[in-house]
């Protein structure tokens, strides 16, 4: 068996197959698993099913103890008018993991599991996708980008999620702090010139509201590709993870889709299920719900975001559980199904891949007039501080064109 891409989806498929005795080769263009990322924190969500995702992983033979993770049941939710409230749940809402090539990163945990299962991983190679059984090569085009800064801080472990159309056009920013290392990241769902000004302004915002004592280390980022293909298996090849369009259109929480789809593809090749059917039954309804939510979010500005934040907190007040709202908005109910034709027509564009598969994808939206603003004095200082850090060797591992 040959797999293209040694990221989360490719390695998940490889582990399932090799554990059942298959001879598995994974071909990775980069020098290591996780090298696409540079030590940024990401959250594995726990709201698209009632079942805890780590229990699901264990059932599939994947060991969640093979990498470092930090569970969270509480976040600061920042409304567009800077009001801060706290959604909270008794269980685990999400777990923060690190992406990259250090030992404790999730990518390296999956690499170790794969090697233990007998998978042969070939790094730094280019192979023809048509020679592979599973395509797990991650995003191709940009529908959105995220930029972040990693820094040292004295602040205790913490997560903030901010809905703000100015700092993060069409989306959200976040701050994650784990064991003295912080990440402040802004997501741009509208394409911008001079994108670093959004990160500078976002950092300035967080500095105003939290006692961070921030010392910049490096800047990171990446792109997200949001598409829905007409087939998940084509000419005998299985498309998994973001290469198969399996991503969360609303917030970009793609890791769970990547791991799940990799496992499903592996099991399908072993004859335990039908990948095309299983993706359509289990993952596509969630992807469509998230796309419908994204369609609505694209029509909102800060006033809409405020209404969402208020509704979220009202729901928590009524039910006593801050996670219920997140579960609710991914539920593929009748209303979302009725909206689907409008979402398809209004947000997604048709296309064809070079190997002849057709898809609909969310293009990177154009900037709006309101995205043009002058940076604050504090943001200018953040930019200056970063320039100085760059002169001392601080690196940026992602440009919008990546
Ligand atoms: C900045 C940022 C923040 C994010 N935050 C979150 C988050 O908080 N929560 C979350 O769930 N998701 C998050 N995501 C999304 C998540 O990272 C992806 O959805 C997930 O990694 C997709 O997994 P994958 O296996 O499809 O792709 P990847 O994990 O990217 O793996 C694809 C692999 O294929 C390799 N490859 C590419 N082309 C080729 C080729 N031609 N030949 C061989 N190998 C190739 C790549 O080098 C890579 O190693 C974030 C993404 C970004 C960019």
Explain the overall architecture:
It is built from 10 helices and 19 strands. By secondary structure, it is α/β, with parallel strands linked by helices. It has a domain at 142-224 and 372-402. Helix 1 (8-19) packs parallel to helix 3 and helix 4 packs across helix 10 (377-391). The radius of gyration is 20 Å and the shape is globular. The structure holds flavin-adenine dinucleotide (FAD). Flavin-adenine dinucleotide is lined by residues 4-10, 27-30, 36, 40, 42-44, 136-138, 146, 221-224, 241-243, 247, 252-256, 258.
Précis, in short:
The protein is of the alpha/beta class and 402 residues long. It has ten helices and 19 strands. It has helices at residues 8-19, 53-59, 106-117, 196-209, 255-269, 275-298, 302-319, 324-330, 334-347, 377-391; strands spanning 2-4, 25-28, 40-45, 70-72, 76-78, 84-85, 94-99, 120-123, 134-135, 144-152, 158-163, 172-178, 181-188, 215-224, 227-229, 233-234, 237-239, 349-352, 358-361.
């Amino acid at each position: 068996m040959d797999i293209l891409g040694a990221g989360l989806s490719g390695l998940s498929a490889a582990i399932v197959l090799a554990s059942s005795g298959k001879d598995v080769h994974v071909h990775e263009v980069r020098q290591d698993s996780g090298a696409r990322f540079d030590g940024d924190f990401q959250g594995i969500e726990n709201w698209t099913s009632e079942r805890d995702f780590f229990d699901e992983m264990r059932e599939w033979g994947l060991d969640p103890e093979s990498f470092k993770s930090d569970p969270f049941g509480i976040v600061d939710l920042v409304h567009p008018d800077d009001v801060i409230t706290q959604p909270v749940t008794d269980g685990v809402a999400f777990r923060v993991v690190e992406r990259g090539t250090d030992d404790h990163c999730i990518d390296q945990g999956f690499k170790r599991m794969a090697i233990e299962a007998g998978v042969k991983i070939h790094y730094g190679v280019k192979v023809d996708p048509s020679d592979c059984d599973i395509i797990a090569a991650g995003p191709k085009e940009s529908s959105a980008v995220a930029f972040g800064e990693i820094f040292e801080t004295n602040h205790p472990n913490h997560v903030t999620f901010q809905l703000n159309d100015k700092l993060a056009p069409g989306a959200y920013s976040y701050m994650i702090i784990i064991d003295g290392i912080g990440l402040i990241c802004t997501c741009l769902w509208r394409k911008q010139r001079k994108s670093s000004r959004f990160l500078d302004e976002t950092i300035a915002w967080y500095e105003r509201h939290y006692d961070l004592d921030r010392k910049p280390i490096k800047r990171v980022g990446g792109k997200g590709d949001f598409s829905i293909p007409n087939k998940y298996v084509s000419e005998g090849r299985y498309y998994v993870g973001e290469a198969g369009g399996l991503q969360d259109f609303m917030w970009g929480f793609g890791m769970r889709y990547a791991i799940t789809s990799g496992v499903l593809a592996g099991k399908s090749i072993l004859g335990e299920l039908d990948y095309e059917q299983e993706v359509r039954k289990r993952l596509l309804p969630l992807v469509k719900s998230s796309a419908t939510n994204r369609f609505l979010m694209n029509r909102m500005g800060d006033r809409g975001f405020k209404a969402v934040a208020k509704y979220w907190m009202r729901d928590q007040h009524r039910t006593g559980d801050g996670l219920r709202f997140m579960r609710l908005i991914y539920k593929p109910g009748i209303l979302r199904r009725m909206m689907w034709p409008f979402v398809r027509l209004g947000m997604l564009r048709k296309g064809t891949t070079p190997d002849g598969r057709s898809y609909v994808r969310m293009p990177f939206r154009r900037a709006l007039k309101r995205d043009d603003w002058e940076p604050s004095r504090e943001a200018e200082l953040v930019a200056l501080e970063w320039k100085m850090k760059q002169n001392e060797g601080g690196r940026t591992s992602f440009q919008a064109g990546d």
